[in-house]
Amino acid sequence: NIRNIYEAFKQYAKQRDDIESVLQDMLRYAQAYNKILTCTVGSACANTTVKHLNLLEVTVAHPFLMAYLVYAEENHLPMEETETVLGLIENMIFRRFICELPANVLNKIFAILHKQVIKQKRDTDTYSSVLIYILLNRRAAVLFPNNEDFISNFSTKNIYAMRSRSKQYLFERLENGNSKEVNDIVGYLENNTYSIEHIMPQTLTPAWREALGENYAAIHEQWLHTIANLTLTGYNSNYSNRPFAEKKTMDHGFLKSGLRLNQYIAQYDQWTEKELKERCEHLMKVALEIWPCLTTTFVPEQKEDEVLTLAEDNAVFTNRDI
């Protein structure tokens, strides 16, 4: 509890019995925390990833991020490794968010995650390879959702109902991917230059009902707020409930849009359930490129006395987990 931090810290400082070293630690962690808040970790890639993490608003990850950045600096880890580690955390957090896994388990996980990596890491192992192993093999709680769960939730989730910062993050990633030629999606959404556009409108006109066919009500209910039917535009009021053909060919329509998301949409001549399914499949493939599944070659060292059984007369179970 925050009210107990002061007394707890006093006790911690007394146990250290070296105030100078405590202050040095505080400075190192403060500097690491500042890098996270200001997105100045190092390379452009690393800084962008931290910006993404800040958009996701998962401050519960800060204890791990600070511990890692201090460790990386003290051990002269290459910036490429930091880029990989930050990307792994972003990937994990977004997959969990899409799959609606509880966030309350992350508090304790992030508090000890760095120590878990260091405990298992050997001199020949990279930090990221051990981290991936831990994320994929935690048994008590699923840390990293598999592709099947991720894609299933990604394609059906009510994206439009997500909180504002999460939508900014999602559309920024889908629009820019890993390209160096980026559009400032977050900035334009924040200042209302861009807004989220429902390709199939929220209120169906007679023309849209006819275009969708006799099952228009079911199609509308299933797809309206999913990622397959959403894009970005700076001309939302102009688009209104117009038929798809008009949205495509009008001034500043999909055909003339400077956004990658809309250039894909502009290849179609109509917008029915068939096109919704095709765009959904396309975006699922894009999502797996941006937030890929993890693999690692790391194998933890097996200790001879790691497994004890009740059959052992003199087995000692003190301080061991079941």
Distinctive features:
single chain; 322 residues; mainly alpha; two-stranded antiparallel ribbon; 2 strands
Task: Outline the structure in words.
By secondary structure, this protein is an all-alpha fold. The chain is 57% helix and 2% strand. It has a two-stranded antiparallel sheet. Helix 2 packs across helix 4. The protein is elongated. The chain starts with a helix and ends in a 32-residue tail after the last helix. The model has no long low-confidence stretch (mean pLDDT 91).
Question: What is the compact description of this entry?
Answer:
The protein contains 16 helices and two strands.
Topology:
Layout: H1 5-16, H2 19-38, H3 44-56, H4 62-74, H5 79-98, H6 106-120, H7 127-137, H8 147-156, H9 164-176, H10 185-190, E1 195-198, H11 206-212, H12 216-223, E2 230-233, H13 236-239, H14 244-249, H15 260-265, H16 273-290
Antiparallel strand pairs: 1-2
Helix pairs in contact: 2-4, 3-5, 4-6, 5-7, 6-7, 8-16
| Portion in strands | under 5%
Main β-sheet description: 2 strands, antiparallel
Biggest sheet: strand arrangement: 1-2
What is the helix tally? Answer: 16
Mean pLDDT: 91
Query: What structural class do the secondary elements suggest?
Result: mainly alpha
Radius of gyration: 24 Å
Calculate the terminal CA-CA distance, rounded to whole Å: 29 Å
**Spans with pLDDT under 50 lasting ≥5 residues?**
none
The SSE order reads HHHHHHHHHHEHHEHHHH
Characterize the overall form. Answer: elongated
Quaternary assembly: single chain
Give the beta-strand count. Answer: 2
Q: How much helix, percentage-wise, in residues?
A: 55-70%
